Amino acid sequence: MNPRIVSGSRSHLINQLIFFDEQYTDFIHQYFPQHSSQRAGMEKLIRKYAGMLETVLEQSDSELLASLHSVTLLGSKAKLVYEEDGYEESFTIVFPTEIDPDQNRISFLSPIGSQLLFSTAGERMILETPVGRHDVRIEEVKFAYIGGFAKV
Q1: Element spanning 80, H or E
Q2: In angstroms, rounded to a whole number, what is the distance separating the alpha carbons of residues 131 and 28?
Q3: Which of 19, 25, 79, 99 has a CB 3.0–4.6 Å from the CB of 90, allowing a cystine?
Q4: pLDDT at position 145, please?
């Protein structure tokens, strides 16, 4: 285990937690200005995510490393296998300011990103996309995020 990688990942996750603590209201208002069921759902998702971060950050370095390779967090790359044809596709789940469709970096606010958040390696799920529903298996999860995120 490389201590620098674990330390850097831990630091990045702490910064995410601080961001949601300090910028939560501005963030929600920016992306969901009107009270709606969509906004309420996203508020619930963010609270759940912050709770997940707290749990993950309480872990020892070896447990943290295992979590970073098993559960999809902001900054994780999830490799999916479509059950119907074996096609493989990877997505990195990022903050909305860091999306890059050419690199399959998708926002956790997007329909696909929000479905993949919290998914675990080996999990099977039905992924709803604009073109239909797909049975997929989460083949692999790696925390690989080296970018940052902008304050609102």
Answers
A1: strand 76-82
A2: 28
A3: 79
A4: 60
pLDDT at 136 over 60: yes
DSSP state of 103: G
Contact status, residue 133 vs residue 126, Cβ threshold 8 Å: yes
Edge-to-edge, what's the strand order for the sheet holding 124-129?
105-107, 88-94, 76-82, 132-143, 124-129
Q: Which residues contact 101 (CB under 8 A, 6 or more apart)?
A: none
- Domains of the chain with bracketed CATH: 3-68 (no CATH), 76-143 (3.10.50.30)
pTM: 0.89
Q: What is the pLDDT of residue 152?
A: 43
Of 53, 150, 50, 141, residue with least CA distance to 98: 150
pLDDT tens-place string over residues 77-111: 999 999 999 999 999 999 999 999 999 999 999 99
